[in-house]
Amino acid sequence: MNSGAHTAIEPGILYFGTPVVLVSSTNEDGSANLAPMSSAFWLGWRAVLGLGVRSRTAQNLLRTREGVLNLPSESMAPAVDRLALTTGSDPVPAGKLARGYFHVADKFGRAGLTPVASSTVAPPRVAECPVAMEVVVEAVHPVGDDGGVVAFEVRVQRVLVHESVRMAGTEDRIDPDAWRPLIMSFQKFYGLGAQVHPSTLASIPERLYRGPDIERARRVPAV
Q1: Of 7, 15, 140, 142, which residue is least crowded by CB atoms under 10 Å?
Q2: What is the block-wise mean pLDDT of the chain (223 residues), using blocks of 10 residues?
Q3: What is the 3-state secondary structure (H, E, C) of 82-100?
C-alpha cells in the first residue's frame, strides 16, 4: 500500500494527460496548415489553446483569427504521429530545429488525412476526425515571462460530429462510451479505459450548462 508520502521533483513538462487536437489554420498563401497539439481545455463553448507564439499555427491564428479544432480518435494515432516533428514554418524556427523538426508544406498529405470545407471559417476540417469545432479567436493572453508562449481563447461557432459518437435518442449529446479520444500524456499516446465509477455530476442535465455562446453561434452564417 502506498504510504502517501510525497517527494519533490522537477519534471521538464507537466503534461498529465489531455486530448490531442489537430488544429487546422490558413497559411499566408491560402493553403491549409495542420498541426497536432494537446495543451487545450474547454469551458462551455470556449477553448483555451497553449501554443508557441512563433509556430505557424499561432501565427496563422493571430493573422486570420479563425481555425478548426479537430479531435482524433485513438485509432488515428499513426496519422497524428506522422505529423510529429513537422512544421509549416520555413525556415524552421531555431528552437524547433534544435529539437529535430523539419518543414512540411502539405500537412494533410503527410498525415494521410482528408480536408473538407468548413461551414463558418476558411480552414478545412479533417474528415476522419469524429469531432470538429470551427472557432474564432476572441483573445490572446501571454503566458510566462519570455514571450514565447501564448494562450488563445477561442469561441466555438460550429460543433460537427460523426454519427458514431452521438448518443442514441438525443440530438445534441456525445456518447462518452462511444467517443474514444486520443490522449497525450508525457509525450506518449493513450486511449481512454472503461468508466471506473458513476459520477454524481452526471445527474445534472447537460442542457443546464448551455450558455449564451450557443445562441450566438446559431446566428453565424455559413461561408
Answers
A1: 7
A2: 86 95 97 97 97 94 98 98 93 89 95 98 98 98 92 98 96 96 97 95 93 96 90
A3: CCCCEECCCCCCHHHHHCC
Three-state secondary structure along the chain?
Answer: CCCCCCCCCCCCCCCCCEECEEEEEECCCCCEEEEEECCEEEECCEEEEEEECCCHHHHHHHHHCEEEEEECEHHHHHHHHCCCCEECCCCCCHHHHHCCCEECCCHHHHHCCCEECCCCCCCCEECCCCEEEEEEEEEEEEECCCCCEEEEEEEEEEEEECHHHECCCCCCCECCCCCCECEEECCEEECCCCCCCCCHHHHCCHHHHCCHHHHHHHCCCCC
Phi, psi of 144 (to 5 degrees): 80, -175
Domain segments of the chain as ranges: 18-217
Residue 151 neighbours by CB distance under 10 Å: 15
Total-model pTM: 0.95
